Amino acid sequence: MSKDSLITVENLYRYYGELCAVHDLSFEVRRGEVLGFLGPNGAGKSTTMRIIGGSLAPSGGRVLINGIDILDQPILAKAELGYMPETPPLYRDLTVDEYLAYCARINRIARAQHWSAIDSAKERCGLTEVGRRLIANLSKGFQQRVGIAQAIIHSPAVVLLDEPTVGLDPIQIREIRTLIREVANEHSVVLSTHILPEVQSVCDRVQIINRGHLVLNETIGEMRAKLQATTLLVALRMVPSIAELESIHGVQSVEPLEDGRLRIAFDADRDPSDAIVEQAVANGWGLHELMPERMTLEQVFVDITCADTALPQDSKPNLNPGPDLNPAQAGEAA
Questions:
Q1: Cα separations (Å) of 143 from 6, 129, 237?
Q2: Tell me: the pLDDT tens digits for 114-127?
Q3: 3-class DSSP state for residue 69?
Q4: Is 168 part of a structural domain of the chain?
Q5: pTM value?
Q6: Domain check: are 185 and 74 in the same one?
Q7: Which residues are paired to 189 by β-bridges?
Q8: Terminus of the chain with fewer CB atoms < 10 Å: N or C?
């Protein structure tokens, strides 16, 4: 375990009866890092978030929050956690100041430090001017800010954010994303979201879980390299033979498309665009379109989570099971 690791998940399992919702999951989140945690519905993402947050016991493995085992010392470990669920736990009939004062008390902040903690959280979340307003009268964007303020008021090491920009307008989304990056200056953040552009704009690392298995864990830099264009879409009025196009330096293969265009795959370090243009001009092919075809994070997500290849299914290990839910709850929790 790295000394900078604020979340350490080791060989995590969670069973609901015979259903394995989380299978041998291991990863770390380091100080100052924003982790984008992705997965299709039913993949085990919510179960994992609940285990990290301490509201659900694992069937096997362990979770350390800032080096503290959340099962052995739950009170100490949870003191290092801040959490905002998809629907923030707000009391709409309180003012922002009243609500944050309540949050300061339940997070056991010393009474002498209540207002300094409240003022700091309001300043960081852009709430200084609305402290005396009823939460019910705030816009959805400001209510999300209050939700984040309650998650960071006690200066936890780790902040868990579940779908923090759902239901916001584009301006509010940009403001919340900026706030998340600012929060990450002092905390580690785990961001659970279905909005893939949000991951690319906010996160330092991307993690995808599918059917309980961790199927991707890469930095944004590694993802950008993976998303680099390695195919071109080309449209020509006079289409030469496939063999003639494949003879161009750097071209790996040529695929005719239904709309008359060509998809040209090439070596990542040998872009043949200039050579194609030269050949098109010299041979009168009538080039009228040439554009890189870039993969998106959405395509990577769909390819990984919809692949036909079966994930490994090991036999059930000898575990110390946590409390099981009844069958009706089991399907929802995964």
A1: 27, 14, 56
A2: 999 999 999 999 99
A3: strand
A4: no
A5: 0.75
A6: yes
A7: 34, 159
A8: N
